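Lecture notes, part 5. Sequence design as translation. It can be helpful to think of inverse folding as translation between two languages: the language of shapes and the language of residues. The source text, in structure tokens, appears below.
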């Protein structure tokens, strides 16, 4: 997570939108992973350790996808910055 100083209000707004969009994309990927693998493998009848294959791929697999996705977002997308404008910060403390 990088810290960027001196960002304009427009740059901050754009970064917030970028982070929100990336988070929604990761949510959609996780949702599709869970639903598609659950339906695609539900009729296979394969069981591993007493659990159906669709559950093993769908649920724990989605957890792994989510963790990898969050790590990626934290390293490549999210930026640490103060949402308050510098000139507003002094006036708010008075």
């Amino acid at each position: 997570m990088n810290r960027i100083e001196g960002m304009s209000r427009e740059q901050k707004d754009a970064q917030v939108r970028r982070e929100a969009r990336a988070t929604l994309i990761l949510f959609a990927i996780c949702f599709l992973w869970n639903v598609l693998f659950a339906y695609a493998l539900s009729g296979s009848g394969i069981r591993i350790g007493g659990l159906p294959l669709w559950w093993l791929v769908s649920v724990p697999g989605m957890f792994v996808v989510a963790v990898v996705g969050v790590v990626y977002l934290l390293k490549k997308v999210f930026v640490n910055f103060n949402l308050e404008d510098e000139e507003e910060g002094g006036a708010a403390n008075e």
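The translated text above is only one of many valid answers, since several sequences can fold into similar shapes. Strands lie at 2-3, 47-48, 51-52, 79-80.
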